[in-house]
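Justification of resources, computational component.

The compute hours requested in this renewal are based largely on the per-chain cost of generating structure records like the one below. Each record pairs the submitted sequence with a full structure-token output. That output is archived, and it is also reused by downstream analysis tasks.
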Amino acid sequence: MAEPGGYNQSGRAPKATVQITAEQLIREAFDRQGSVQKAPRQKVLDGEELSDYQMRRRREFEEGVRRNRTNIGEWLRYATWEESQQEIARSRSIYERALDVDARSQTVYIKYAEMEMKNKNINLARNLFDRAVTVLPRVSQFWYRFAYMEELVDNVQGAREVFDRWMQWEPEYEAWMAFIKFEQRYKEVDNVRGVFERLVFVHPEPRAWLRWAQFEETNGDADSVRDVFGRAIDRLGEEHMDQHVFISFAKFEVRMREHDRARAIYKYALQRLPRAQSQSLYNQYTVFEKQFGDTREVEEVVVRKRRMQYESMVKGDPRDYDAWIDYAKLEESAGDRVRIRDVYERAVAEHPRVAEKDVWRRYIYIWLFYALYEETQARDVDRARQVYGAALDLIPHERFTFGKLWHQYAWFELRQGNVGKARRALGQALGRCPKNSLFRSYINLELELREFDRVRTLYTKHIEFNAANCATWVEFARFESALGEETRARAVYELAVDQPTLDMPEILWKAFIDFELELGHTDRVRSLYERLLKLTDHVKVWISRAQFELDAKGQEAARSVFEEGDGRLRDVGRKEERLMLLEAWRTMESRDGDVEMVERRMPTRVRRRRELDDGSLEEYFDYVFPDDAQSSRFKLLAKAHMWKQTQESE
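The structure output for this chain reads:
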């Protein structure tokens, strides 16, 4: 049931039974439009009707301009109608009345002048244009029409006078170009030059100089063109200079086959224009050198271009040390010593502001390359020594140091024959900030000098500094062995293996065993294996010992080692390592032995599940050995026997 007011319970108006679309509404509205009523055409049959019609229309126009005197459009329609009635005097009078209303109306002046020109009243049109440019001298349209009218009636001198009057007002660039084109149409070359002289004074823009140079190239000689470009460069200066001026100048010289002049222009411009304003100049110079230059000149262009790229990179991020290094290497390839040193000095001046070694690492390479350049290429030893000294003074050694820098400095002094300075440098490094790399560097230095006593002393100091470093112990022992000091070498190894803490003991023990093997002391090797197996049950040690026994005594001795190792690994529960041992044992037996014996010991791979900390189950693979399965059966029988006894007692 409908609610009162025509709305249902939801508050919405009920839907109409017939729906009308928007398209139907628009179509009906269009169909109902009536035809537009047009005013009837009147035919004038005699002079009396014409006078009556003209009187009525003038009355309407007068009434219109009286009601809205400032409506210029009404005045223009009035004047145009009078012109259509061939009433030129009346039309002129109406235009004058309109100018009395608005003396600065551009439209009135233009329509007025068009009416006079259409009716061939040239003097009246000239006077009207003269009035217009006097009242509105900044309106370019009046000047254009004025000059065009004079040229149209073949009054060339009058048109030139119009342009001269216009140029006194220093109009825009396009107006000057119109004057120049006018003079070019009448082949007045000297007048064109005079206009260009005035143009570049009023508008000293690159496009004005380029148009002048283009004109001189067409109508003058090469010296005139060069004079224009030279004056342009002097007048514009470095602040307002444009790269296209130099490009056009250089291309002109190329057309004149003056390649050396063009190259000089390019280089002059590249030295004075900033990078951001000379990209096209660089590209054109590159193309020029590829066409007309030799290999050296092409490379020079490439160096210049890359130099500007690196300049922009280091300007954006002064601590981009990789960019500085590449920049310095670029300058080294160019060979300009002043530029090279300037780049290096600018680079080292941007030192890191935080005392963190990772930040300083790339920065130190700049010093190293700098010193290397001074020593090897510049051949300035004193300056190279100063570079090393400045770098070492700059580093915060109380926080960190760079062994490579100390090492390079020491070897630099050694190359100069200053052994004492080299030793003092490395000694100072070890005194201020000892580290493994510095000890190794000092030891290598003394080895090169064949100072073996000093080497022993350094190894001793190194071990005192870091007794857990197995590599140092091994190197020390090998050094003694190389000198034929077997007793000393063995003593070094013995001291090393007795250390409570070692960073890589496996390397030390292997070196010790290899040392005794080389000497052929099998008993000592066997003793070392026994000592090592008391410290570790690593499967590789067992395999290595078995291989040793195989080579020393034969297969039976190796088999006994494998059996002992299998038992030890079974007791400690290392199933994966035990499997590795059995596979190595099987490989040995496969050559000429009892493989089935080993196969009986091989485990079975089974899949099992185990519960994780979160309560979920995880599948994994386990190895079940035959002895483990037998032990499990024995345990099961023992539990069953105990259960039976419990039942009987109850």
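Residues 1-7 have pLDDT under 50 and may be disordered. The first strand starts at residue 604 and ends at 611.
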